Amino acid sequence: MAKVPVQFTLNGEERAEFVESGATLLKALREKIGDMSVKGGCHQGTCGSCSVLIDGELRLSCLTLAEMCDGTSIETTAGLAKEGVLHPLQRAFNEGFATQCGFCTPGMLMAARALLDRNPAPTRDDVVEALAGNICRCTGYEPIIQAVLAAARANSVNAA
Amino acid sequence: MALTLQSFPTAEAAGAALAADGASRYLGGGTLVVRQANEGDVSFSRYVRASDPALAEILVSEREATLGAAVTMGRILADPRLACLAEAAHAVGGPAIRNMATIGGNLYASAPYGDLGVALLALDATVEIGGETIPLADFLREREASHARSVLTRIRFALPEDGALRFIKVSRIRPKGVSVVTIAAHLVLKDGVIESARIAYGGMADRPIRAPAVEAALAGRPRTAEGIRAALAVATEGTAPITDAIASAWYRTQVLPVHLGRLLLA
Predict the structure, then answer these.
(1) Which CATH number is B165-265 given?
(2) B103 with B116: CB under 8 angstroms?
């Protein structure tokens, strides 16, 4: 199968890979690069488990072709913690028991991250709206919403 | 199965490639076509796309908007000049989908998807495809027969007066749920009387459709419960609702007049 060269930044690190033409970013991240933080759920754009940030925008890696990410900056949950210190969102998810089986968590974290990047002080409705594309089949939505709100509050305390 | 992507600098070149290869599909935002590939659709083996940045342009004059087919729902929402379409663009998917899904793709979506197309149909938009400009209603009717192997490049519509376009997407889950019915109504009002109306439905056929019987029954009538009664009586005329996991055709037929009435009187 034809391979195509792709260069992008993954969690701040330069990457140059040969990917199969037509392969999704999800497949390239997991099977080629080994970033297992990105989860493949429905592969239909319904569940949000594969959510990543591409140039700061929330996107679904299962519906994005890897070769179309040439020259972009990609962020995944694997890049959230810095030098062993959890991101405020990860800390809030951990402390608020916002993960049950954990499969949806990376997608939830990236959707929440996209929200807080644009809106550091969201309302509950803003959070519900931002997570609308992410499904949790443990149905633990309430602790997730609370964790995002808690992370936002913690951020504002740190910034003050 | 091996799938490949081929990019072309212009829509014309991509259109020629689509026309020449029956096993190719045009790739916009990927939310329909890559999804089909992921689901195991083996009827195509090649994605074709055009990389021309003009396809993502938004041009708004005092009276008219021209949107490139690659403009996403997210970009519509971010543009205050396109406030008339905000509700419909917001009705599409969740935040990630809206950052990917394009207007062009939305017009090829099968029911129950294609909510933005319902609003554009009520705005009497035109589309530019294969170098020709045609009414959106004609495009939708003939899209599989005549337009499956062409590249849709632009959508154009006259900007409505403030508040003239009403839109509702009825779904069972909020904030993101698949449409039971979607209704868009463009009303020209004068002293409480509906001078003219354009009504479009989603979910009431396999693609967005206009409701000419309703439009005729509304013209010249006051926008009151009594005034719209005759229009509601013919609300389902000419419809052929879909049956899916969300609702049966029977259910859609029963609830359509209720939601149409609420939308018109809101």
Answers:
(1) 3.30.390.50
(2) yes
